[in-house]
Design goal:
Layout lengths: L13 H6 L3 H15 L4 E5 L3 E8 L3 E8 L4 E7 L5 E7 L2 E9 L5 E4 L15 E3 L5 E5 L13 E6 L5
């Protein structure tokens, strides 16, 4: 996989735009949010089926471990110097996928390496996570390593009820 290249613009974080928090603080807050989605282990299904949980977290990074029918691995979350959250997916120790995550409003958005970060009118960003972390969807055209099931998307959803 190529060297990490964040999107060409600054990330959007609701806390920066509403409260004027520094971007790096917002990025750390986004890592907290993503970790909270899986603070209790979560079962997921869709284009992959498995189990994900928070394995490690500190102020600027986290590791989410998973087992799945597509292979076992982890997602490494890191606050990049650009203030984007870099998410790298490893399966069996091999880097398979990288995305750059931001929190512009309720849904989390993510982008491939070097993206311009501009969402065309009446379209969604290339990757999205629901505001409560119950589903994730990405456009395969933007992320060539994602297996396309024929409709141009790859997605998973939470099937665990966390009470």
């Amino acid at each position: 996989m190529n060297e990490p290249i964040p999107p060409k613009r600054e990330p959007h974080y609701i806390w920066n735009e509403d409260q004027n928090w520094p971007l790096d603080v917002c990025a750390s807050g986004l890592i907290d949010t993503l970790c909270n989605f899986v603070s209790r282990p979560v079962d997921f299904r869709g284009d992959a089926s498995g189990h994900i949980w928070k394995a490690q977290q500190d102020k600027t990074s986290a590791r989410l471990a998973f087992t799945s029918d597509k292979g076992d691995g982890h997602i490494q979350l890191t606050v990049d110097a650009s203030a984007w959250v870099r998410a790298e997916v490893y399966i069996s120790g091999e880097l398979k996928f990288r995305a750059w995550v931001e929190d512009p409003w309720e849904e989390k958005s993510f982008w491939p390496d070097g993206a311009d970060g501009v969402t065309p009118p009446n379209e969604d960003p290339p990757g999205r996570i629901s505001k409560r972390g119950l589903w994730l969807q990405l456009k395969c055209a933007a992320f060539p390593n994602a297996p396309d099931k024929g409709n141009g998307y790859w997605d998973v959803e939470d099937v665990t009820i966390n009470l």
